[in-house]
Amino acid sequence: MARTITYREALNEALVQEMERDESVIVLGEDNAGGEGAPGDHDAWGGVLGVTKGLYDRFPGRVLDTPISESAFIGAAIGAATAGMRPVAELMFVDFMGVCFDQIYNQAAKFRYMFGGKAVTPVVIRTMYGAGLRAAAQHSQCLYPLFTHIPGLKVVLPATPYDAKGLMTQAIRDNDPVLFFEHKALYDLTGPVPEESYALPFGEANVVREGGDVTIVTMGRMVHTSLEAAEQLAAGGVQCEIVDLRTTSPLDEDTVLESVEGTGRLVVVDEANPRCSMATDISALVARKAFGSLRAPIEMVTAPHTPVPFSGALEDLYIPDAQRVVNAVKAVAEYAR
Amino acid sequence: MTDTIERRALTRDQLLNVYRMMRTIREFEERVHAEFATGEIPGFVHLYAGEEASAAGVCSNLDQRDTIASTHRGHGHCIAKGVDAGEMMAEIYGRRSGSCHGKGGSMHIADLSKGMLGANGIVGGGPPLICGTALAAKIKGTGGVSVAFFGDGGSNQGTTLESMNLACVWNLPAIFIAENNGYAESTASTWSVASDNIADRAAGFGMPGVIVDGFDFFAVHEAASEAIARARGGGGPTLIEMKFTRYFGHFEGDQQTYRGDEVARARAELDCLKRFADRVVQTGELAQADLDAVDADVAAMIDKAVDDAKAAPLPTRADLLTDVYVRY
Amino acid sequence: MTDDRIVPVTMPKWGLSMRLGKITDWVVAEGDEVQAGDDLADIETDKIAGTLESADAGTVRRIVARAGEDVPVSGTIALLAPPGVSDDDLDAAVAQARAVIDAGVPDEAAEPIVETAEIGGRKIRYAGAGQDGDVVLLIHGYGGDRNSWLFLQEPLAAGRRVYALDLPGHGTSTKDVGDGSVDLLADAVVGVLDAIGASGGAVHLVGHSLGGAVAAAVAARDPRRIRSLTLIAPAGFGAEINADYLRGFAEAQTRRELKPIVAELFADESLVTRQLVDDLLAYKRLDGVATALRALLGTLVGADGSTQRIDSAAAIAALGDVVPVTVIWGSADRVIPPAQAESVPGATRRLIDGAGHMPHMERAAQVQAAIEEAIARAR
């Protein structure tokens, strides 16, 4: 039965169902239970924004709080994965990746290749990303392009509760290291989610809206911004097709190219900074492989090349909004040589 | 650190095995040193000659439940944990028949089936991984232990320090082996480690710290066996510091102008193989002829390994793209 | 309505949970003459797209709802009236109808009640419409679910209690199908009949495709319990079957793979909307479904990989004259050949022109009429 639950609840449900199904699944991270060693409640937080709440009591011994030692516990999760566990480790804010990046991109990502195919590292690293909470420069970034760049990693960004549960289920069952990006602003988003377990394949983009005039390729929270823009544009007679990548690595090139071959016009909407980003990656892909279909230059709607500002007045200018998407779509729709 | 340290009695077969282990490492490294000088071996190589007693003394206490992680100077740990020397040689030559099909090289030789989590090109890369394998062993109740080998240089890396704390916080079946060979690349450990000994740090983390003469197989074996028993029994981690020196440079090609004359002295007076041989022959546990037989055997095996490696085919274009993922 | 010659065209209820429909396109314009059965408008819900057929003959005097507008179920979308009716009366009727549309759907609009029965260790879900009268149980086919009947369940419920269930392996019922046999599926149907409390009263079974074979098997177990049996493109009445379709459905992993396969179900392939394919894909991705579909494939298709294994004719023979049988088939069925209708012994036959394997979706009004006829004939 599909009922309406939040993105946060969908993630929690995926964790519960997979932990019930497979006892090698363990959860670890800072405050993933909360209260370890303290006189008050155990499971006091269940994760800083509550995603792992309730797991500690339900799965004794399989939910571990950690000291603030990312390189040690992310590395431990990776090591445990090579030894037959399926750890789901939390890197609380992706902005903290700097202190543990080596374990992720030099160790986990490369074991299988460096060891001639003789290693399997089924680790999931969950992390929060994205701006909008006035959390400022060191707690608001979208760093998925950096991980997408690394061969050996898989990178996942669900936009809806249905996708969140299905992609988390797949991430846990997947035998490669997965970086699982959760946008902070989406945790309270509601949507229909089946009660039963299901896994969504990686490398399959979702066409969330069909339309013949302009293709919008986007991901994560920007899917909703794009949908908002598309409603406005439809009222003005421009029909957008919105492609939600769902996973940036592996990337569903075919769906992107098919869509642009149909519309001839592309706008990429990406909350990350513009240099060496998904926006440039998709733009290059389309320019190379669908050049003949393009009837207008490609437009990108991204954050500026700045850190994330604190003041709401500035942060709201930093994050791409529906109006900017509308403007970009109109520009490509109206383009004539 | 005197010659009167009491040692656990090893059987004749065990003594022959550990002698073979150390001799194999020594001959392997000496041979790679010679071959590297001809220019035929690609990339970077970091040799373990001189330090054999550490790898052998620790690993001879381990079994198939146990995991080790090593450093860029990993050949000795690989051999001691049972990785095939012929496949290792082929890997160092970048051949398809190598341990990692030519895709890892000297710094990334691994064999997870033997609990060898790899040599590691990143200083301090191993200890966090070992916390993970120890955690897995603890949760699964296998009784296995995990050993992190790192150098005096690696002992200063943040990852190593974090891992030691984490292992104590989680009470993991982990052992930290600081192989203090006196130099982190070109700088002396007496300078880069601010405390008198690396082992002094152990108390700061809440675990026992032990200092061992790294040239003395039996001293290492004793200390390791105690630490491993503590870990297996749920008593938590130990930090063991080996004091010794490396016979070759940081990397092959290192002119080593930063050193004094300690290598000549060590080879003559402190060498672990020489001391082992002297002891077992003196006590009558083994005959010189036994040791000579092992020497001859190992020499032949290394010769064959090099010949095979030189003749083996290289990986092909098709190999370039394989094994990035289990399934993409 | 001020003038009772004004006949409202209303937003239909397709499916128990439908609350809103969107008119995507008007087929007719003001001034057009229509006969009963003519297409009036293309309508989309969150579950399905379809075409509304006119229930009456008349002149389209006013279009009330615009294309692209969401209209609550039962809301008036157009008015038919003879030329004599005044513009003032029509305008007043339009204003009333607009008020309803503009008010939208109240949030507390009732959700259909889905029941669960525990049968043989499995949870079987079913939902009912209608207050009293004979019981009609609708049994879907391979890969379908109770929503396969969404164009029929409400309309049939006038004066009847109409139920649709999710067979094991389908919908929201338990996905484990054990040996996947017709018997096991029939057990589930019998269990639902018991749960409904339909032991004494009049029970009419309607089964589609594999569900037809199941319905026949259920009837054969206790012919006296079943008042009529209606089979829509049923399995088990011949050797030929489009095994490639069944295999393709079971094995398809992506939307790209599934879409052309699903298209084979329909005569009009434009009915295969993105939503339809997405919903099927979401179903196929549930844990246990792949295994279930493969087991059922083994029930439907023999070891040679191309011919039918089920023998439903035997079940029909066992009914004797006790249960009247009606068989309905789409003339353009590409999954099971319509000629097999001739092999249903003693049945009344209704061939639906221009419909594929899913006539209850493509020509719902005609199938509804045929079912009501079958029920009436049983008295």
What this model shows, in words?
The complex is a heterotrimer of chains A (337), B (328) and C (379). Helix content of chain A is 36%, strand content 20%. Chain A folds into two domains: 2-194, Thiamin diphosphate (ThDP)-binding fold, Pyr/PP domains (Rossmann fold, 3-Layer(aba) Sandwich), CATH 3.40.50.970; 206-334, Rossmann fold. In chain A, the strands form three sheets. In chain A, strands 3-2-4-5-7-6-12 form a seven-stranded mixed β-sheet, sandwiched between helices. Chain A has a five-stranded mixed β-sheet with strand order 9-11-10-13-14, sandwiched between helices. Chain A contains eleven helices and 14 strands. With 328 residues, chain B is of the alpha/beta class. Chain B has a single domain (12-313), classed as Thiamin diphosphate (ThDP)-binding fold, Pyr/PP domains (Rossmann fold). Chain B has helices spanning 12-37, 52-59, 75-80, 85-92, 126-140, 158-169, 189-192, 201-205, 217-232, 262-270, 272-283, 288-311, 317-320; strands at 67-69, 146-151, 174-180, 183-184, 187-188, 209-213, 238-243. Chain B has a five-stranded parallel β-sheet, with helices on both faces. In chain B, a hairpin with a 2-residue loop joins strand 4 (183-184) and strand 5. Chain C has two domains: 7-103, OB fold (Dihydrolipoamide Acetyltransferase, E2P) (Beta Barrel), CATH 2.40.50; 114-377, 3-Layer(aba) Sandwich (Rossmann fold), CATH 3.40.50. The longest helix of chain C is centred in the first third of the chain and has 17 residues, at 87-103. At the A-B interface, helix 3 and helix 4 of A face helix 5 and helix 6 of B.
